[in-house]
């Protein structure tokens, strides 16, 4: 018994010790990170607060990522730059981000005068520099090593941040005298755009509309020129005009220099990304070797589809609309369309048996293609304008055009897109119609009964009048012909005026008894 108790005590002691050690380990792991105090001076796009007081910007996101490599957490101390610089000198803060005013892509220290005891550390393109106290050599070395580690892991991280925040600190449209003179000498440019792909680009009675049309309008406004966009029937016609030099530019050209060289043109910087999705039929599963409908003379056909599928599975058509129709008519199993136009193509083409799952299959970017016959200065001007474009404005244009096209859907498309609501509405409408018809029939029956009573009875007595006798007496006598022949049919005719007099003289009851007596005789 004593041995059993000892074993029990030992087990309890082991459990207590294990719990103690686990608690000690978890407490050690949960120890807070050291805090690095960062001076904060708001600069939109670099480091700033939004309306919810949350920090945003290239420097903010870069410093937060850098903190994980340093093993610290950051605390931001707001103040003017000069105030934070003084705090850095006195040791109140540990780090002060400084934007590179020249926006250089070099990692070399900035050529600027810094107060004594302050050392700049380059963070990278767009992130500027971190100003630190020279009295903190270990921190300086740790930050330099962490910057190198981050660059080795993801060399494109800073470029992604710059792309994300480019709307806040975009490039100004600074044209030199030669560029301004060129635009004044060439106030009108002749262009073409892809046909029939709403809301991306399309023509309405010869007027250019859609996303590319809105972006072209911004370019016209900024450069104070006019770009005349001529309609065309197919993509092939447009590319042929560009190759021949009949036009100055194409407003929406696939960003590939080899593709541009094939059509005797030079490309600008891209201004719009495009995603492509698969369009399938609802009434069948996709076969293992599907037939793919491809539009001719489209870059993505050559660059993606012809590389994704063998030649035997490809069917070529002139336009995207013909590809959609081919899939809808079971001539092909699938096609690919721009994600921003796929639903519009389905609804406006009445291809209600088609659908897209929304998964992006491939992407590319759109630029302007300038004919080689044009002066190269036009390329430089348009590149400045594209760098000046606000990406938020472009996103707003895309959303607005998609909404505008969907708001013009046909009644069939609206019914198809909202089947349950449409069924409920149609049921409610038919129910109201049926109830109205039943009410009308009831009113007509009641009205007919009232008309019959008014036409065939004496008002207030419900006794048949002479009109009823004129209409029904002969048929009634014929029905009772046997009674007539047997002498049992008696016809009694009384004037309504006399009946009223009898009622007044003798009362209603004696009058009724007299009538019954006459009928019995």
Architecture overview:
The protein has 521 residues and is an alpha/beta fold. The protein is 49% helix and 18% strand. It is built from 20 helices and 19 strands. The strands form five sheets. Strands 8, 11, 12, 13, 14, 15, 16, 17, 18 and 19 form a ten-stranded mixed β-sheet that branches. It has a three-stranded antiparallel β-sheet with strand order 5-7-6, sandwiched between helices. Strands 1-4 form a two-stranded parallel sheet. Strand 2 (48-49) and strand 3 form a beta hairpin. The protein is elongated, with a radius of gyration of 44 Å. The N and C termini lie far apart (126 Å). Residues 103-110 have low confidence and may be disordered.
The whole-angstrom Rg is 44 Å
Global morphology: elongated
Characterize the largest beta sheet: strand count, sense, and whether it forms a barrel. 10 strands, mixed
Structural class: alpha/beta
- Spatial separation of the terminal alpha carbons: 126 Å
Observed structural traits:
single chain, 521 residues, alpha/beta, 10-stranded mixed sheet, 20 helices, 18% strand, elongated
């Amino acid at each position: 018994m004593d041995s059993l108790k000892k074993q029990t005590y030992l087990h309890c002691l082991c459990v207590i010790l294990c719990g103690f050690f686990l608690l000690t380990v978890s407490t050690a792991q949960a120890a807070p990170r050291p805090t690095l105090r960062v001076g904060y001076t708001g600069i939109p796009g670099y480091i700033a607060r939004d309306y919810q007081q949350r920090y945003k910007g290239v420097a903010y996101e870069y410093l937060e990522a850098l903190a994980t490599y340093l093993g610290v957490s950051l605390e931001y101390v707001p103040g003017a730059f000069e105030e934070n610089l003084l705090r850095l000198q006195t040791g109140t803060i540990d780090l002060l981000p400084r934007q590179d005013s020249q926006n250089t892509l070099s990692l070399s220290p900035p050529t600027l005068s810094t107060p004594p005891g302050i050392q700049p550390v380059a963070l990278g393109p767009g992130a500027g520099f971190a100003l630190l106290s020279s009295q903190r050599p270990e921190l300086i070395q740790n930050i330099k090593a962490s910057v190198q580690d981050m660059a080795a892991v993801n060399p494109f991280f800073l470029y992604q941040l710059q792309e994300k925040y480019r709307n806040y600190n975009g490039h100004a449209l600074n044209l030199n005298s030669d560029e301004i003179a060129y635009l004044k000498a060439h106030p009108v440019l002749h262009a073409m755009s892809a046909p029939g792909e709403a809301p991306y680009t399309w023509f309405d009675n010869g007027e250019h509309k859609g996303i590319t049309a809105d972006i072209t309008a911004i370019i016209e406004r900024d450069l104070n020129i006019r770009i005349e966009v001529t309609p065309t029937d197919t993509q092939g016609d447009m590319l042929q005009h560009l190759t021949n030099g009949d036009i100055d530019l194409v407003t929406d050209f696939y960003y590939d220099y080899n593709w541009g060289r094939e059509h005797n043109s030079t490309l600008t910087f891209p201004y719009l990304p495009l995603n492509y999705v698969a369009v399938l039929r609802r009434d069948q599963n996709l076969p293992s070797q599907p037939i793919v409908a491809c539009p001719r003379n489209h870059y993505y056909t050559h660059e993606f589809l012809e590389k994704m599928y063998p030649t035997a599975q490809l069917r070529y058509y002139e336009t995207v609309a013909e590809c959609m129709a081919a899939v809808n008519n079971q001539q092909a199993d699938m096609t690919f369309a721009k994600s921003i136009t796929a639903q519009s193509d389905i609804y406006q083409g009445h291809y209600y048996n088609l659908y897209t799952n929304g998964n992006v299959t491939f992407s590319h970017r759109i630029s302007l293609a300038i004919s080689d016959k044009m002066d190269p200065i036009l390329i430089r001007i348009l590149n400045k304008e594209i760098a000046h474009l606000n990406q938020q404005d472009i996103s707003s244009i895309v959303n607005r055009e998609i909404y505008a096209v969907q708001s013009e859907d046909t009644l069939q498309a609206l019914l198809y897109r909202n089947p349950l609501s449409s069924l409920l509405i149609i049921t409610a409408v038919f129910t109201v119609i049926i109830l109205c018809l039943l009410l009308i029939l009831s009113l007509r029956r009641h009205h007919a009964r009232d008309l019959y009573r008014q036409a065939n009875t004496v008002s207030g007595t419900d006794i048949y009048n002479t009109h009823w006798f004129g209409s029904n007496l002969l048929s009634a006598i014929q029905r009772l012909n046997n009674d007539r022949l047997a002498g049992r049919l008696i016809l009694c005719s009384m004037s309504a005026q006399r009946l009223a007099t009898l009622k007044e003289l003798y009362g209603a009851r004696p009058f009724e008894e007299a009538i019954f007596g006459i009928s019995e005789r």
